[in-house]
Amino acid sequence: MSAKILALDTATEQCSVALMVGEKVYFRSEFAPRDHTKKILPMVDEVLKEAGLTLSDLDALAFGRGPGSFTGVRIGIGIAQGLAFGADLPMIGVSTLAAMAQGAYRLHGTTHVASAIDARMSEVYWGRFERQEDGSWNEVDAECVIPPAVLVEEVQKDDNTWAKVGTGWQAYAEDLANLSLTLTDTDMLYPDSQDIVYLAQFEWAKGNTTPVEESSPVYLRDTVAWKKLPGRE
C-alpha cells in the first residue's frame, strides 16, 4: 500500500479529511453537522501542508460515497470532484458503512461489524462486514435501507459476535434490541476519513478508480425517490 491518497468525508455529522503517504496518515476530524462546507477545505489544506505535498503530488482522491445524509453526501462528492478535476486525479468511492467497520477494527480490534446509520423516515442504512486476512472487508449483508422491524425479521443468527457501529443503534434501540445476533457495543458512531483512505488503498491496488465525471454517490434511496415521481416507474 504505497499510493498517496487523500480522502474526505461529509456524509454524516462528522467532517473529516485524511491523507495517506506510505504508512503515515495525516488527518483532521471534527463533529460539525452544519458546517461541512466551511470546515472541509481548510482541513484539506492543513493535511497537505503537514505532509509537504500538493494535490498534484497525489495518486488519487477518495471520498465517502454514502450512504448518509443526502446533503452531506452531495457536499462531499461535489468538493471531491472539484479537487480531483483541478489536479487531474482519479477518484475512489468508499462505503461509509464499510469505513465504520474498519474504524471499529482500528479502535477495538473487532473483525465482525454490524453498521447501522440512522436514515430517518423510520429506517436505517444497514450492512454487515467481516474482516479478511489481508485487511479488506467482506460484505456479509449487502448495503440496504430498511425499517428496523423488517431487519429484525430478515437477519439470521450466526456464531459470531457482532460489534455495533453507527447512529442507527441509538435511534432505533427498541426495535434493534430484538435482533437475533450476538452483539457488543462500541463508541463508533460516524465514518472517518482515516478508515476511508485505508480502504481506498485496496481499491487502488485492484485498479478500481473512476474518472471525475463518472464518480457518483450512493444514496440507497435513489430507486424509491425516482419511482415516486409521476411517470418515472
From TrEMBL:
Q: What is its main location?
A: cytoplasm
- Gcp-like domain location, by residue? 30-175
- UniProt KW keywords: Cytoplasm, Transferase, tRNA processing
Q: Name one GO cellular component term.
A: cytosol
Q: Where in the cell is it found?
A: Cytoplasm
- What biological-process terms (Gene Ontology) are attached? tRNA threonylcarbamoyladenosine modification
What Gene3D superfamilies is this protein classified in?
3.30.420.40
One Gene Ontology term of the molecular function aspect: transferase activity
Work out whether the entry's keyword set contains Ion transport: no
The yes or no answer to whether the keyword Transit peptide is present is no
Family label: Belongs to the KAE1 / TsaD family. TsaB subfamily.
* Protein name, as recorded: tRNA threonylcarbamoyladenosine biosynthesis protein TsaB
Gene designation per UniProt: tsaB
